[in-house]
Design a protein that fits this description.
Radius of gyration of chain C: 20 Å
Distance between the termini of chain C: 54 Å
Oligomer: heterotrimer
CATH architecture of the domain at 285-397 in chain C: 3-Layer(aba) Sandwich
Strand content of chain A: 15-25%
Order of helices and strands of chain A: EHEHHEEEEHEHEHHEHEHEEEEEEEHH
Number of helices of chain A: 11
CATH class of the largest domain in chain A: Alpha Beta
CATH topology of the domain at 285-397 in chain C: Rossmann fold
Largest interface: A-B, 56 and 52 residues
Largest sheet of chain C: 4 strands, parallel
Strand order of the largest sheet of chain C: 2-1-3-4
Chains: A alpha/beta, B alpha+beta, C alpha/beta
Strand content of chain C: 5-15%
Number of strands of chain C: 8
Structural class of chain A: alpha/beta
CATH architecture of the largest domain in chain A: 3-Layer(bba) Sandwich
Helix content of chain A: 25-40%
Number of domains of chain A: 2
Helix content of chain C: 40-55%
CATH superfamily of the largest domain in chain A: FAD/NAD(P)-binding domain
């Protein structure tokens, strides 16, 4: 009997992207749009499902940032290892424009020149560059009379607490804000504990909306701006939001809740269906655990499948597995930091035996900026600054030098670096 | 200054103090207990949760072992709700002297500890994660004991018998008049005012802090705080208490308690029981020792680390705290130091807390010239009347058969909104950290990443807090949590901590809360 | 060192992604969701008494495990917890019955007309619902009346340089023998000598109904039959995507079967479309497809997605001129093997499937394609559109039609 098994099972693509968060999806979609055959391999679904849908480019740099465009040059100069040092303002701007166009159905607003200030679920006025239209009326800069709507059964949103903080929040230009709360008890049937996603699905049912509208309408005073938790539908969010605005006769906006992030799910759905339309292959649930290399190039990556490893060959690769939160970086019990897919050099670590963490929660922790350093072509580099592989690029929270959760720069960095990785790949080809 | 009058004033709200207050109240004394912080926040709330069979002391400390032999069955009867009957094993690993097993057996037999050698194959079936190279195993009636439930049940019972329990009341000074302690000046740590408590007898049950309290009456009591660190692992790596069968040493026990397994411990003499630093070396040692019992231990998820201070009383100078007997001592300062109206109960361990209380209150009866019988070995604690042991599955079962019928606020430990508000109401004012101990809020894998926003929102609403009070409750909790998590951050728990950073700092911008 | 599925709960960061995707917790409040019954409730379980029965409302579709970015084996934890539950309580007769397709097949095949009439008789189905708890409206397949094995015994596969072993599973054998014939013909068309060894059930339905001991016995027996071929270096190909997955992974991961035969079979096992696509990637698949002017909405069933190989059926469809494949993104059809047959779960199953059904209806497809037999039966029942295995489309495009 002859061997009929394709022993070294492998498949070929133009580019393989590892990771399906915002950075990976951005790189993949750009490449697929450029006509590439693209595969996205992801251990699971990425942070789009957890993070707010806003594109925060730079929110905090010694205090809140009013204009990212103005703040970025100085910020980059002060933080020479920061990824923004390598991402030009033009590129960041281009990535925002690209994103706004792809997410057309979401009506994204804003840009690099000024930040919106929108309330978090704690009531902090948080700066952000781009937001979907369903959040736009929450901009606190102009002040106004705000009503925050509570939904009984939703444990991830406390409007009274939020409203108390918003009322005390210092705003740019000393805008005056008043807040109050309306608590609704929408019909949930037997359920007492409904997640944000559960509410979002309910909001897509006309009868449910009707009952919310009826109860809310009699509680509003003309001129008020109405803030909901971000649960106003998933696929049909635009219609839900418009109907609420029209029928209430008040501006309506969403406030991001704890995970799951409903508006983040919308972003994921839109980007993945665009990818499908472009013929890209999205393999969720496939862990990349090894590489095949030769002549300084990455020939293929080896992914786990149910039966045996499968090698994905490609001309280019993008690593977008995220940071420590998603095991794109790992720290073991003996204090060793690793990038687990390619064992890339990790930059931004303190010296030996120096502590990785400080005793105060808000202290600057040495580990925070650890990650993969890249060259101008977004390729991971070794200690000498030479690319580890000619055709491997990295994007997103894997990158060294940023503390994105603190700077409010997370989605901005992911978008810009994912966009830049695709540019670098397309440049090589042309 | 407002003044309270009582017969017995108990200083210290750990298991000993709570036990003394209950016993005294049950014997009909007007009793007040003061504790500088929340109840069970000293040593009691910082131990691994072992209800000793006595096995740990069988070879080296027969007096302590015999006390455990007596107390273990009493607590099983009277505090069943605080106990899970896990059973215990002493196992000889390949790193241990196999000959110690014989000493251990002899020690158990001599002190009356029910012991049985179990075939290794059977032990490995029962606890499949144990190192396959173990050579001998002995079963003893170890179990786990929930310290917060225990203290809470004792103080509830004490209250029912008329005692007053005053947490967050720090003793500033003892009033001594004519060589007699007649009361104490205490500071209400929450309200900020002072108050005087006049008592016929003051019982110093301050554990590792007993020397400091005795000092206030001019007495010298040497209590050596012995620091022990413990690490909680994310889930039940074992379901039986596992002890190394060797002379007591660091990292020789894993206690499965509630949803976690706790490995312990060290024993380092320290100067101040309030200064218990956990060093990276100690953590490393725990993980290495854990690995010897349960291969893969280093890769398993560590949730949190903490240190407790054993109150080791010694009349003489001792260099190694592990050589100090774990039995307890009642000091009548009248006989010892010529100070009337003042006794100190110290040493001991949570397993013998009831006996310690009994001895202390016996002495109190003597001093107050009455003869009243102790009944704490007969009367079950509130919640334990049916003598039914705590069952790990209880919180899941409580949500059946119709899940989703209550809002679950802390999902890791399955705490409902109702349980949370009840815990807030149980002792006001309550910080989130107090609520944590009362119901295990945020003690699971996410360490509050998801529930603390919710709990703060509920606290804000339920207690009508203003934004500043709510915000500082939140920020205080985040710092407190960081303290316990930071030293062991690696692997899975670092991923969690980073996700929590994204939630608190990224999504909620907690750092920029208004003043 | 033994690996414990339970240990993967350590990776859970409570992020809620599994909950956002679980189609079952969305459809019924009786199922509190994968995170809850999986990594969460598992911390409260120890051997002895199961604290929760709600875990039985998990269908085992496995979507949670797939989407989990942290590597928690959620569905696998649930599956083991369910087995523990039923071990304590005793498995109901109904679950014992529907979990043995090969026994049912052997009973039903000789009396197929009568059996089919019985299964479609409204009165008898009502009685069956009351007596056995099998929902009266649930989609049940038709006995073909002849087995694929019988055809295969008579069929002489032409000698060829390359040999492949075909694992057809029970659905093909008793209900859809023609799918088996098409599979053999397509493989032969591509230059393979096809071997069809004798084979019985893989134990998957027993596993999903919580009868682990019986499931282990079945899968061991099957693996023992297939292992000699795998050891000789033969690929084993299956058109039953869920049974193939059982051999690839679930026997090892969920049932904890540590068995040489299972290990070697697991490594040799290919899902049919996976196999053909890999051949194509090596330039070894014949692409002499005739144009096929068809619109084919394609549903990748949950178990197919569990293979972790993407959607090779779509890559194959792309080779057929004129064929317009539509990739549907609904997650689950609701049947989950035997879940949707059960009286108490039928409504849930249909609610879950509704998203797929409506996508199928809106697609205006000529025929739907799906790799799993039970899902195809559910699709036909729920969406009223004819559903075929992708091999049927390829078979036609190759011009191999009879």
């Amino acid at each position: 009997m002859t061997d009929a098994r394709p022993r070294l099972a492998d498949v070929g693509y133009d580019t393989v992207v590892i990771g399906a968060g915002l950075a990976g999806l951005t790189a993949a979609l750009r490449l697929a749009e450029a006509g590439q055959r693209v595969a996205i391999l992801a251990k699971g679904v990425g942070a789009t499902h957890l993070a707010p849908p806003t594109i925060d480019v730079l929110g905090y740099a010694n205090g809140p940032v009013d204009s990212p465009a103005q703040a970025l040059p100085e910020f980059a100069a002060a933080n020479p290892e920061h990824p923004y040092r390598q991402l030009s303002i033009e590129l960041v701007r281009a990535s925002l424009d690209w994103f706004k166009a792809r997410l057309g159905d979401h009506g994204y607003r804003g840009g690099l020149d000024e930040n919106f200030f929108v309330p978090t679920a704690l009531g902090v006025a948080k700066p952000t560059a781009l937001l979907p239209e369903t959040m736009a009326a929450g901009d606190l800069r102009e002040g106004g009379r705000f009503v925050f709507v509570g939904l009984r059964g939703l444990k991830d949103f406390f409007p009274a607490y939020l409203a108390d903080n918003v009322a005390q929040t210092p705003l740019p230009g000393r805008a005056s804000v008043t807040t109050r709360v309306v608590e609704l008890a929408p019909p949930l049937g037997e359920a007492r504990d409904v997640s944000s996603a559960g509410f979002a699905r309910r909001f897509e049912q006309p009868a449910f909306r009707e009952s919310v509208l009826t109860e809310l309408r009699r509680n509003l005073v003309p001129g008020e701006i109405v803030g909901f938790p971000a649960v106003l539908g998933i696929g049909g969010a635009r219609e839900v939001w418009r109907e609420l605005e029209t029928r209430l006769g008040h501006p309506v906006f969403e406030v991001p809740t704890l995970p799951p992030s409903v508006p983040g799910i919308r972003v994921y759905d839109t980007m993945t269906s665009a990818l499908r339309r472009q013929g890209a292959r999205l393999v969720i649930g496939s862990t990349v655990a090894g590489a095949e290399t030769g002549n300084g190039r990455l020939e293929g990556v080896v992914a786990h499948t149910a039966g045996r490893p499968l090698t994905y060959r490609a001309r280019s690769f993008v690593l977008a597995t995220g940071g420590f939160a998603s095991a794109g970086l790992e720290l073991d019990s003996s204090g060793t930091v690793r990038e687990p897919v390619f064992d890339l050099p990790v930059a931004g670590l303190p010296g030996q035996n120096a502590p990785l963490f400080e005793p105060g929660y808000f202290d600057e922790h040495a580990l925070s900026r650890a990650g993969v350093a890249v060259d101008e072509s977004r390729r991971p580099v070794d200690d000498e600054g030479a690319p580890v592989y000619e055709n491997l690029h990295a994007a997103g929270a894997t990158l060294a030098g940023a503390v994105p959760w603190r700077e409010a720069s997370g989605n901005g960095l992911s978008l810009a670096s994912g966009y830049a990785a695709a540019s670098a790949i397309l440049e090589v080809i042309s | 200054m407002p003044t309270l009058e009582t017969e017995v004033l108990v200083v210290g709200g750990g298991s000993t103090g709570a036990g003394v207050a209950r016993d005294a109240a049950m014997r009909g004394f007007a009793t007040i207990l003061v504790e500088r912080g929340d109840l069970a926040t000293g040593t009691t709330g910082r131990f691994h949760g072992l209800l000793h069979s006595g096995g740990r002391y069988a070879v080296k400390d027969p007096v302590a072992a015999r006390e455990c032999v007596v107390e273990n069955p009493i607590l099983r009867r009277t505090a069943a709700d605080c106990i899970e009957d896990t059973g215990g094993l002493f196992v000889s690993t390949r790193w241990d002297d196999p000959g110690f097993g014989d000493d251990f057996l002899r020690g158990c037999q001599a002190t009356g500890i029910p012991v049985e050698e179990v075939p290794v194959a059977e032990v490995l079936r029962r606890e499949p994660r144990l190192d396959q190279g173990i050579t001998r195993a002995f079963a003893v009636p170890d179990a786990n004991l929930d310290p917060w439930k225990l203290v809470s049940a004792c103080t509830r019972s004490a209250t029912e018998y008329g005692a007053r329990i005053l947490p967050y009341h720090r003793v500033l000074g003892l009033e001594v008049s004519d060589d007699k302690v007649v009361g104490a000046r205490v500071h209400n740590e929450v309200a900020g005012d002072e108050l005087e408590i006049r008592a016929e007898l003051v019982i110093n049950a301050a554990g590792a802090w007993a020397g400091q309290i005795a000092n206030l009456a001019g007495c010298v009591v040497t209590v050596l705080p012995g620091k022990g660190i413990m690490i909680a692992m994310n889930h039940r790596l074992v379901n039986t208490v596992i002890n190394r069968c060797k002379p007591p040493s660091d990292g020789d026990i894993i206690v499965p308690i509630r949803t976690v397994s706790v490995i312990g411990t060290t024993d380092v003499r320290v100067a101040d029981p309030d200064e218990l630093e956990v060093t990276p070396g100690e953590i490393d040692e725990m993980l290495d020792e854990g690995e010897k019992l349960v291969p893969g231990f280093r890769e398993a998820r560590a949730l949190r680390v903490w240190a407790g201070a054993r109150p080791l009383y010694t009349p003489d100078d001792v260099t190694d705290t592990r050589d100090v007997s774990r039995t307890h001592t009642v000091l009548d300062h009248a006989k010892r130091d010529g100070v009337e109206g003042f006794i100190t109960i110290t040493g001991g361990k949570t397993t013998t807390f009831r006996l310690m209380a009994e001895h202390a209150v016996d002495t109190a009866c003597e001093k107050l010239g009455v003869n009243r019988r102790c009944r704490t070995h007969e009367e079950p604690l509130p919640g334990s009347e049916e003598e039914r042991f705590y069952w790990l599955g209880a919180r899941v079962r409580a949500q059946e058969p119709v899940p989703n019928s209550e809002e679950i606020i802390c999902e890791c430990e399955l705490i409902t909104r109702r349980q949370l508000t009840e815990a807030i109401a149980r002792g006001r004012p309550a910080g989130l950290d107090d609520v944590r101990r009362r119901v295990r809020l945020a003690m699971g894998p996410c360490q509050g990443g998801f529930c603390i926003y919710r709990a703060t929102g509920i606290l804000h609403e339920f207690e009508h807090l203003d934004h500043q009070a709510a915000n500082s409750a939140l920020l205080d909790f985040l710092q407190e949590r960081w303290k316990g998590v930071q030293p062991i951050l690696h692997g899975d728990q670092l991923r969690q901590a980073r996700l929590d950073d994204w939630i608190f700092q990224g999504l909620l911008a907690v750092e920029h809360l208004p003043e | 060192m033994t690996e414990f599925v339970r240990d993967s709960l350590d990776h859970c960061v409570k992020c809620t992604i599994c909950e956002s995707f679980c189609p079952y917790s969305q459809a019924t409040p009786l199922f509190p969701g994968p995170k809850y019954v999986g990594p969460q409730a598992e911390r409260f379980r120890r051997t002895g008494v199961s604290p929760d029965i709600s875990v039985d409302y998990c269908s085992g579709c496995g979507i949670c495990t797939q989407v989990c970015p942290q590597g928690v084996k959620i569905a696998e934890i649930n599956s083991q917890a369910r087995a523990q539950l039923w071990e304590e309580r005793g498995i109901p007769l109904r679950n014992q019955l529907i979990a043995r397709p090969s026994v049912l097949g052997r009973l039903g095949t000789p009396v197929a007309p009568l059996a089919n009439w019985t299964l479609r008789n409204r009165v008898l189905r009502r009685i069956g619902e009351r007596a056995l708890g099998i929902h009266r409206d649930a989609a049940l397949p038709r006995f073909a009346g002849r087995t694929f094995q019988r055809w295969a015994r008579k069929h002489v596969s032409p000698a060829a340089e390359r040999t492949v072993v075909y694992f057809h599973a029970c659905g093909t054998n008793y209900y859809e023998p023609s799918v088996g014939q098409m599979t053999v013909e397509v493989l032969e068309h591509n230059g393979f000598h096809v071997v069809v060894p004798p084979q019985d059930c893989c134990g998957l339905p027993l596993q999903s109904n919580g009868n682990f001991p019986a499931a282990r016995a079945y899968v061991r027996r099957l693996a023992a039959n297939l292992a000699p071929y795998a050891r000789e270096g033969c690929a084993i190909v299956s058109n039953s995507t869920s049974c193939g997955l059982m051999l690839k992974r679930e026997a090892r991961e969920i049932l904890d079967v540590e068995d040489e035969d299972v290990a070697v079979v697991s490594e040799a096992m290919y899902d049919l479309c996976e196999f053909l696509f890999l051949l194509h990637e090596r330039g070894e698949l014949r692409t002499d497809f005739a144009p096929l002017e068809l619109t084919v909405p394609y549903h990748a069933p949950c178990q197919q997605q569990g293979h972790g190989i993407g959607k090779p059926a779509l890559d194959l469809f792309a080779l057929v001129p004129g064929l317009q494949a539509i990739e549907l993104d609904a997650d689950c059809c609701g049947i989950a093997g035997t879940y949707g047959l059960k009286k108490e779960k039928y409504e849930i199953s249909m609610t879950v499937g509704e998203r797929l059904f409506s996508q199928l209806r809106e697609s205006n497809g000529d025929v739907a394609a799906c790799d799993s037999e039970t899902c195809r039966w559910q699709i036909e029942h729920g969406a009223g559109i004819h559903a075929v295995h992708p091999i049927e489309v390829l078979h036609r495009a190759y011009g191999l039609g009879h």
